[in-house]
Fold LysR family transcriptional regulator.
Amino acid sequence: MNLHRIEAFLAVAQGGSITRAATQLDVAQSVVSRHVAALEAQLGIRLFERTGRGVAMTEAAQLLAPRLRAALADMERAAAEAAELGGQPGGLVRMGLVPAAAQPLVGLLHQQLARQHPRIRLQFVDGFSHALDERLASGDLDLAVINRFGRLDPKGEERLCVVDSLLVGPIGALAQDAPALPFKRLAGLPLVLASRPNGLRTALDEICRRVGVQLQVAVEADSMLTMKGLVMHGGLYSVLPYQLVHEELAAGRMSAAGIVRPTVPRVLTLALSNRQAGSAAVRAVAQAVRGIVRESLVKTVWR
């Protein structure tokens, strides 16, 4: 099978449109369409159906996509391992990050690897822990920084640090002279939280059962940008770590208070895919993450 056809098919499958696939591959839309049409002709099946918003995969495409994605990943990994025989780690490393871990880790990690391991290429994937868990299990990711709640030593994962969650709200809503609020005070506030399944929602549900309250979730949102917008401009509250809102707090665009009795700690862990043994490139990225967190982030915004 032609590699360019496979890459075009997978890009369309991931993005849901020819336009987004062309942007991802940095080629003309006509090139993507031609590759997909050629693959359909080769297989004798339709892979996509047009919709009002782009294209949707057929049943055959849904069966084919994960297998081709895994095969392509195996090819890239084999090439990287062969290159490592020359002594320098190299190749593509696919890394997942929860929003709480993205800033400023991604920038610091890129800079360090560009200096020390220029042959390593990084592909970052943002998402909440549940989605990243699934992609790690399927082999779509090589490693990930994930949120955990309630378990300080998750099996098979390496603890990076523990951070407390804050109650964040609109400007002036949380008084500066009351730096911490009992958990029960959250019950009367309109909240924006991620939709289930979600580790924070599970942790909050468990705390609510223990202390005998029920939270008022006014809106569910699976985007941190949307959550922060609803807090700053929609009059809602949320439960977020300091590193996600420190810039808004410093600029006076929102207010915050600690949560006590009980606190809502989250453990940031480093997890590696158990589908395949990690390459030297994956190990180099993991080591860089450990060093950056230990030497830089826990002393500044990860607190």
The longest helix spans residues 59-84. The chain has a mean pLDDT of 88. The domain at 164-265 is CATH 3.40.190.290 (D-Maltodextrin-Binding Protein; domain 2). Residues 245 and 251 are 10 Å apart (CA to CA).
